[in-house]
Fold this sequence. Notes:
Strand content: 5-15%
Radius of gyration: 23 Å
Helix content: 40-55%
Distance between the termini: 59 Å
Strand order of the largest sheet: 1-2
Mean pLDDT: 83
Structural class: mainly alpha
Largest sheet: 2 strands, antiparallel
Shape: elongated
Number of domains: 3
Order of helices and strands: HEEEEHHHH
Amino acid sequence: MPWSDINGLNELLNFASFVRYCDPSHHLGSLASARLLDSTMVSIIGPTRIGQVLVTQGDVVLGRNGGVIFIPPQLAEQVVEHSECTHLEDMFGHQRLREKYTAGQIDARWTPEIEQDYHQWLKENEDHLPVPKTTVEKILNEQEPTN
């Protein structure tokens, strides 16, 4: 990607780009050649390799500060649901770390008492959580703690 493209992308608001490296000469032909471009487009909307990953049409791209991942479309819903559950567990864990549990208790497999506390927390906060109510209800129904 030419340097001017990277500078232009950085100026766009609400546009995320992730660049591992660039070489401003990658499109240029040799000095003996009058050609400006020395690239061949092999396909449009075809599979491409980015780093060590093969990316295909329909893949969901998730970019964060730590990098970029590509999720096959048939797994996207499952990944979203799992990440919502993980996000709720993290919210609960961070709050309870400030209030009553140690890091060792939260970072280890939760005891039945912590599981019960988590389910009670979900019930009390169901209307204020950043996930659909159906996600909370699914957690409560599938993983009801034993007393």
